[in-house]
Amino acid sequence: MIQTRFQTIRLHTLLILAVLIICLPVILAIIISTQSEAQVLSYPPRLIPGSSTIDNYNKAWRTVNLGRLMFNSGVIAISVTIGKVILSLLSAFAFTHFEFKGKQFFFFLILVTLLLPVPVRIVALFDVVRGFGWIDSYAGLIIPFWASATGTFLFIQRFKTVPVELIDASRMDGCRPMQYFFRILLPLTKSTIGALCVIEFIYIWNQYLWPLMATNSDSMRVVQIGIKMLMNSESSNNWGVIMAGVVISMLPPLLLFFVLQDSFMKGFALQSEK
Amino acid sequence: MKSSSFKNPLLPYVLLIPTFLILVVFLFYPAFETFRLSLFKVHPYSGAERFAGFYNFKKIFTNPEYLSSFWRSLVFAVTVVIIGLMFSLFVAVLLNQKARGMKLYRSFLIWPYALSPAIAGALFNFLFNPANGLIGYFTGVRTWLTDSSTAMFIIIIAAVWKNLGYNIVFYLTALRNVPTSALEAAAIDGAGPVRRFFSITFTYLSPITFFLMVMNTTYAYFACFGLIDVLTEGGPAGSTQILIYQLYKDFFVHSKIGYAAAESLILFLLVVGITMLQFQTTEKKVHYQ
User: B29 and A3: CB-CB below 8 Å?
Assistant: First the structure.
């Protein structure tokens, strides 16, 4: 369809407007994070960078021990992601490449987990984790999240698109199932694994309710709770420091997102086909 | 499933063991146990249990605070879904045009996906805070977050904003799968762009719309906890207290275990209801292939 000049201009205007709506809160946060308390309070509001950048970031980093919180969030997000990828690869392999008794039933059980988000089972989950002695520990924030319906479905979708001839040929060559899995299937699944990694890392990094309940010492808190801690500890007008903390804490998932954007988009396309 | 599969009687079970170990210990058992506890009175310190039938449910449904939180959550979810999906679809349609710089636009429109609800809460807290919030300055109204009639409105805007990236990605992917042949045929029949959109594109988008309705509803009901905790803590005067915040307070702050378990069961029934609704609609109405 041919666009007129007017239509092109209108399209770009609307897109720029949408970009502004979506980006403005974060752009402002970055600007404010450079301003001193007095600059933040100036009237009319000052919308240009201020002079307190290093002070603010330094203070945000030290006030709530942000380094430690980032480390915790990183350890947790990476461990959960790796565990989820491995477990869902294995179960997707079982569902797509084997016939066995109770397959339908097991698949149904995985489907059921979609109905059981954390809040629905939180009362007893807390008891179970406490029973293991895992409150205020990495284990309590990592292990309960290893099983993933999303991941299993994602890999099932991907495995189904692998040509049947490949499995036949490798069986003729005397390839054992796990050899086939590691040598043929895994290399073909790289971009889906990348997509799941982005989705899960961001999901876990951004979790709030469970880490809030399952930890209680300051050294075991995660970065999301750190934002709230920072808001409570700073005087309510010192937004420069708070926004500095916000900017720091959103960097890791954003970096990952931009680096792996393409495989993430592919994974999303698969996800919506379930 | 595939005609061609490996023959091995034991291996598939071995492959499933790790997943099911986690599922049983951390999903199925806790869910079952939570539902069981909803029928008990549990002592907050000793943990002693006494069977109480539907006592907890009776208490819940005669508690005006819970009931208003129930309706508030519903209004919240419905508003977040409607505004969020409309805006995202609009942006996705723009992004689906052919013009220069589309990939760049795409990146800058979907990246809030990587932000957390808590961060959205902090950003909007700054924008609307009574002392020096920018929106307060530009609108002349400083009470956005301190007035119980407007606080919910801010929560809705923040929640919609945070989820735009997610929705735009899905709509964009779906739009790219709309066959151009159908659109061209309609164009030849004399349908203008607006009619083409509503009669053809929209039909093709209905499965993804239902999927997104479910995802956004669960997002509004559950994931927005962090946003609310950072932005209003449920206040002022409980005006932004949705069910998940209520559950958190009853369980974690007030240690009302049986009562909180009953609240969880109600949330579970809501999830089941929403999911059934999705299955029903996707099976009946949106068959187009």
Answer: no
